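Lab meeting, item 3. Inverse folding demo.
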């Protein structure tokens, strides 16, 4: 019986799209929210699929907190591109990742998964 383990974390970062309808977008910041979804087929003796604390700790290590994303990445740091980057970064440590969602605001975000 499969479970989906979900962990959500916020980080704070500035960015601008390098080409927003033909010209660079003005620099601005967001409180980004990321959600990571991992599949767990079995639970341990304590009833846990994957330790939330470990995933959260890993996210804390890899998320570019208090950074200018354009200086961190060699791609235009849209929510879509950050979601794709995060998916493969999480997959390095957690191959059971199913998808990630990256929210720029409360209402606008992008998810990435493999089809
Ligand atoms: Zn933005």
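The presenter then showed the designed sequence:
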């Amino acid at each position: 019986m499969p479970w989906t383990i979900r962990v959500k974390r916020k980080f704070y970062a500035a960015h601008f799209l390098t080409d927003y309808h033909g010209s660079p977008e003005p620099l601005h910041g967001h409180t980004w929210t990321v959600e990571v979804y991992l599949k767990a087929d079995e639970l341990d003796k304590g009833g846990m699929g994957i330790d939330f604390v470990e995933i959260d700790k890993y996210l804390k290590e890899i998320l570019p907190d208090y950074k200018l994303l354009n200086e961190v990445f060699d791609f235009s740091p849209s929510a879509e591109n950050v979601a794709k980057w995060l998916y493969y970064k999480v997959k390095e440590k957690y191959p059971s990742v199913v998808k990630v969602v990256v929210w720029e605001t409360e209402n606008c975000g992008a998810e990435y998964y493999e089809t």
